[in-house]
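Worked example 4.2. Below are the chains of a multi-component assembly; read each line carefully before continuing.
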Amino acid sequence: MKTFYTSIFITFLTLTTFSQIQQKIVLNQPDTSRGYTVMHALANRASEKEYDTINLSLQDLSDLMWAANGVNRPEEKNRTAPSAINGQDIDIYAFMIDGVYFYNAFDHILELVVEGDYRDIVAGSQYWVADAPVICVLVSDISRFKFGDDDQRMLWAAFDAGIVSQNISVFCASVGLATRPRASMEIDKIIDLLNLTETQHPMLNNPVGYPLK
Amino acid sequence: MKTFYTSIFITFLTLTTFSQIQQKIVLNQPDTSRGYTVMHALANRASEKEYDTINLSLQDLSDLMWAANGVNRPEEKNRTAPSAINGQDIDIYAFMIDGVYFYNAFDHILELVVEGDYRDIVAGSQYWVADAPVICVLVSDISRFKFGDDDQRMLWAAFDAGIVSQNISVFCASVGLATRPRASMEIDKIIDLLNLTETQHPMLNNPVGYPLK
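Applying the procedure described above to all two chains together yields the following structure tokens:
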């Protein structure tokens, strides 16, 4: 009987803990009127190495994802970022304090992939990068390119990752967020954590946060 | 005597033709107040395949070059486009009707490299691309990366080309110009024409023009 009550208590604890993590973050619609002009944003653009630890507002998080690689023409299923042979190979995994989320661009939501704070494996030896409330890890699935050998596909994946990364940099410069593109991260640990397939390659990452005062 | 006059006449013709080609195009200062916001530009962004043949205005040409990879922080010698280990490896060659020009970002001028219309070798089999008044060919000089083996450097070069290309796409979307990123071009002919070294690699190109009505 004691075992029975203990079991119920553990189940209750598990459910309680479980419910604290959002399985799905419904993002706000993009605010296309906010921020600086492209030319003004490019005048401001600079790679920032340090970030405030406070969380992004829901609107900032929403607009960040959409600007990076959101759907801007739903009828044609097209995106803010072009891609080689329209392969739409780049997925964004948002590493945040509570967990790692997958950006489902067509539903404009973040879906929980793994619970827990794993920003340190993206930061690697540059441990202070893990201060950023969101680190966008850009993963290319090269199987979405319908032709080309592996070398060709990896080159396309790198072009496409650079394109999405620059959407992030330009968006951040337009609304006063800090970011920078980074090629370094603990790739094998990320592949294991996210259970990526052989055709999915972490290419670049962009930590994003408010500027450190 | 007849030969002498013929010779003078030919020299005169040559000099006249020569003087019609601008050796140097001094660009206007960037107009950082023009155009749409970044978010609005991203809502508009789409890859356009066809272009009007009319030339860009000097302000559009100037802002295009600056937005793509201009100097936005002259004191620190930094650019609108970030690059791997700040290698600043991407050079822009502007293929135009009169000739091919090199964008000297620090002097913000275009310098004539080769006289003549060579847009067709960038267009390749997509011959209509040569209608665009400017085709920006993004060339990485991987020797500017101070470390890394060739595979590593080529990956960085591809990220950096994607980044510059997206600056072009976002700028164009902000001011009503048409563009798209292209990986296809006649690379060997471009290398020969521009007399590129073994460390200089044409990576991507962006034709730019006014939209075809």
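Take a moment to check your reading of the output against the notes. Chain B touches chain A through 52 residues (CB under 8 Å). Chain B has one domain: 26-209.
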